[in-house]
Amino acid sequence: MNDAAASQQPESAAALDALADQLAACGAALPLPAGGREAVFGAPWQAHAFAITLQLHERGLFTWPQWAEALGAELRAAGPGDDGSRYYEHWLAALEHLVVAQGAGSAADLHRLAHAWEDAAARTPHGQPIVLADGD
Questions:
Q1: Helices (H) and strands (E) in the chain, counts
Q2: Which tens digit of pLDDT belongs to each residue from 35-67?
Q3: Distance from the Cα of residue 106 to its chain's centroid
């Protein structure tokens, strides 16, 4: 895409094009949820998991081919009966497995942090930011 065409695109379309370029680098091994350019996040946690994945890749924790293999393994393990509605649950499981496999954390660390966030969310008034306390 040339610079003039890119500058005329809405920001979200340009972001989708950039993401498509990154995904193309992964090859056909990266399964994606059905759909086109409509929103693919059904809940905020899905967008957060996506963003965390991008950040961990940018920090060098894993390569895109490693990510594609991890996500593909989770999706294959779900079997042919999976209707795609749990795509981001598989995404999160793949991310957790990579974090552990790359030595960035243990399964126990991830479990403890998940519960800490659940506890923090439960005590946070609606509309306020969720913050972990020192004891979490």
A1: 6, 0
A2: 566 667 888 889 999 999 999 999 999 999 999
A3: 18
